[in-house]
# Entry
Amino acid sequence: MLPKEIIKNSALKYADKTAFKCYDDKISYYEINSNSNKLANGLLKIVKKGSKVGVILPNCIEFVEIRFALYKNSMIFVPLNMGVFDVKNLIDLIIDSDSEILILDEKFIKLIDEFKKNLPKIKKFLVKTDKKSRNYTRYKDFLEQNNNKELEVNINEKDITMMGYSSGTTGKPKGIVSTQKNWICSMNNLHKNADTEITEKDVMMHITPLTHATSIFLLPYFLKGASQILVEDYDPKYILKTIKKEKVTSIFLIPAMLLGLLKETYKLWFLCSNFLNLGKNLSSLKTIIYGSAPMYLEHLKKCIKRFGNILEQGYGMAEVLPPLANLKKKEHVLDNNKENEKKLLSTGKIISGVELKIIDKNEKEVKSNIIGEIIVKSDTVTKGYWKNPKATKKSYRNGWFYTNDLGYFDEQDYLYIVGRKKDMIIKRGMNIFPKKIEEILLNHPKIKECCVFGIPDIRFGEEICAAIVKKSKLNENEILSFCRSKLNPLLIPKKIEFYDKLPKNASGKIMRNQLKEKFWKGYNFVTN
# Structure
């Protein structure tokens, strides 16, 4: 079943039920299907099947309408993350993508006013706004100008449906090309391997940008007749209130957001007369899925203690649509069992429908407990990188995607991610993984955040640098003394740098390369 059929069938089955809510706006299953048909039909009057549609919008109902419309008319969805890219980057990516339609939020009207001459391929500008102008068409007016008939476009599962750009944490953003089949298989994998079956009684809250991994949940929840809540800005206080008000059952969060939510519950605990009030506020919540960035053990333990065993970890990436592996709720336990605690460091077991290997530098599969590169084969492996045959050839080989992630399997087939190949520090010929050092540093009561990376060293090739955000007064000697008591001498940072905050992208990932840049200027150091 293709996405367009899921959308149509669910709209018929759950017609009057609320499909999506975004603050004060809401839309039924019937209405969102009708609007997506109007948009899909209207766009086909301007451009043809396979054309690219650039979208610069926050999480909102219109974002979902566009996503659904482009499934139906087989155009290519090009979402551009407002929080990651500045105006110049956005213009560069619009040009790079060869988009012919641009749909944007009114905050970005200046893109049209200032850069229209730089975008000759754009045949239509649609803007989510109440303001009228000759330079663009209001999105809502465009819908009203077109009919809501179901489309009869011939669609193949191999048709390209999306081109999402990477955040550029390791260099220039790459356009990642995915097909209708990729997204259907991702949905099927999620259903087959979910800890808890999705039903029409569920309420899914989308907090991370829909340009990000959370968009994989749109179709699975729509298929089952669930309601979905869209949040534009990450606000822990608002999220907790909304969980109670809307009886939210499921959320997806990156680790940084989950920790922010955890801290907000502590604040509420102190304000409440007793903790039971907070428990009642969150009683509807059955599933917290986290992923997309490392989750450190001490942080995870605190989350389990606060939220209980409703946590579930997913492993995936933009090039291979999630999930690939998951650590289930029943494995998120605190029982003083060392074996169970070790599993919390893993990303769980590989799901059905996915092949995953760990290989050495000679591309030979390695045994348990030996670190190597993770490679993946699945129907969710995307087609490659847009206009980048060199990167595609390097990463997509013989049906396998070479992830650049380093990891290992234990004897029970749990997968452990130790870091990125590009982040590995080579000191005195030894491979050092930043995550291990970061785990130790984050145990220091005065350290709020940290990032460990390699810097050039004439004697040893590389040395270790730690970028630190303090919780309270702290000096370099205290940190080094702490490290000496916890770490092998080879792993003790040579340099400590203090920051008020660490650079992050919209997904909450620390921009490690940005921290490294100043140390590697003048050296033969290339990021890709």
In short: The longest strand covers residues 447-457. Residues 28-155 form a domain with the Rossmann fold fold (CATH 3.40.50.980). Residues 316 and 362 are 24 Å apart (CA to CA). The radius of gyration is 24 Å.
